[in-house]
Write a structure and sequence with these properties.
By secondary structure, this protein is an alpha+beta fold. It contains 4 helices and 7 strands, in the order ββαββααββαβ.
Length: 141
């Protein structure tokens, strides 16, 4: 088991990494307890780069724009939605309410069954939407 030492030019720390571990797991570099970088196996990096290239060619920005438009339609329709669907989950597609349900997942599944995998906005109708706060990042392997 070989150890690899990494040292950044002006850093006040040296990172010692197990060579075998580096080939199989992603590692977060956290000097002083704050994440500043991630070391990933080459296979993971290559998969990420391939995904990145595909997403550039597949129109990801176009889908992002469509999602943003659907969210804007939801915000614009919110007063009417509060009167008609308060507490329910609605799905907005092409500026229209296309599904109403009780759970986000089931409502989204109905949209995908009807229209295929399309950019849409699914949200519970509330006067003040819930905000979810995540106190820390978790590395998923």
């Amino acid at each position: 088991m070989e150890k690899i030492k990494l040292r950044e030019a002006q850093a006040s720390y040296t990172l010692t990494v197990d060579d075998k571990l580096l080939h199989h797991e992603a590692m977060i570099v956290e000097p002083d307890g704050r994440p500043v970088a991630m070391l990933v196996p080459m296979a993971d990096y290559e998969a990420f780069r391939a995904w990145q290239q595909i997403s550039k060619r597949s129109g990801w920005p176009k889908e992002q724009t469509a999602f943003t438009q659907e969210r804007g339609a939801f915000e614009k329709m919110l007063p009417e939605l509060l009167r008609s669907y308060a507490g329910k989950v609605v799905a907005i597609y092409q500026g229209q309410v296309v599904e109403v349900g009780n759970e986000i997942n089931e409502t989204l599944d109905k949209v995908y069954d009807r229209f295929g995998y399309v950019p849409c906005y699914v949200q519970q109708v509330e006067a003040k939407p819930r905000v979810y706060k995540f106190p820390y990042r978790k590395v998923v392997r």
